[in-house]
Protein: SMR family transporter
Amino acid sequence: MAWFVLVVSGLLEAVWAIALDRSAGFSRPLPTAIFGVAVVASMLGLGYALRSIPVGTGYAVWVGIGAAGTAVTGMVALGESVSVLKIFCLLLVVGGVVGLKYAH
Structure:
C-alpha cells in the first residue's frame, strides 16, 4: 500500500508543479486552488509512505515520478520542445525509479 500511495503522491507532485506554473504567480484562482490541494495531498501521501519506505528511496522515487510526469506533461500538453535526448534522459529517470523500487 505504501508504494501505491508513493506513486500517487509523485503524480500529485506533477499536478501541483503544473498548477503552480499555470497560477501565474498565484494570481489565477483555479490553478492556485489546484496547487494548494495537490501539494498538501502529495506531502501527506509522501509522509504516509515514508512510514514503511526508507526516506532516501521514498523521496527519490517521489521526486523522480514528479519530475518525469511534469516533463512529459510539458512536452505532450504544453508545447515544450521534444528531443531524443530529453526522452532518453526521462527514460533514465524512470529506470532509476524502477531500480530503487526493486532495490528496496
Observations:
- The chain is about 80% helix and 0% strand.
- The mean pLDDT is 96.
- Residues 88 and 94 are 10 Å apart (CA to CA).
- Helices lie at 2-22, 29-49, 55-77, 84-103.
